[in-house]
Design brief:
With 285 residues, the protein is of the alpha/beta class. Helices cover 26% and strands 29% of the residues.
Length: 285
Amino acid sequence: MKIKLITLIIWVLLMNRTLIYSQDTVNSCTITYIANDGFLIETNNSKVLIDALFGGINGNWCDQPDDSISDLMLNGIGPFDNIDVVLITHYHSDHFNGPMVINFLRNNQKSALICPLQVDEVLKKNSGYSSVADRIHSLQSGNQFDTLLAFNKINISALRFNHGSYFEIDSVTGEKYDLHSDVENFGYIIEIDEFNLFHCGDASFSDKSHFESYHFGDRDFDMVFLDRTFLRKEGQEIMNSLIHTKDLVFMHIEPGRVEYYKSIIKDVPGLSVFTKKMEIKLITE
């Protein structure tokens, strides 16, 4: 009975997804939450996977994909079939796993990868890299970096942002230093079937100068994904003055604190957090 019940639940979930997905609007974009900063972005013609190929992390400090979801991704099984582009924002383990990325590219021959050079340096250490290297587009970035790439009518702008700070004390000097100061963190603007989205990776909530230099105040988005730390005062200033979007999703939510963040934003229209893996949100024009 328990097995039958689980089977029924899975069937109902898939049917619900199908029903939502089959609402044949003129143009729509479906956002599926994987874990942490990981999402599947799909339209009628294109699919982008961002920061979703990771897992096996010891501890409960971040949300990570279930094994069943990872298996679907790695083997290109729906809804993870026909992925056009995989995006990785930076090399930290809660955004990227080298062997998983190599296995995905080997199993999904039509998919391309865009990543910072630091990610590529890690990938090179993994078996099978040479067989997929021609589809890896690694970008070496300076402090101010903005470049545009196009794949199957999807335009991807890779923008360098400072990674959020994490301070430790040097055991020798006793001085405080930022452990993440040298991390190449990319934010991505994704133009897909007339939809315009922005994913910040782990961009710093105090990095207003970069948002200004990339002219975010002149841009309009259908959805923006920001780190939860943007709810702090400095981040709110960026959101209020430079982020123009119909929907804003906060990500990088610690397990067990989803309800806390929901309570903070519950009275503000257009703000949301995802609460369950494979939860979807539909954007329409």
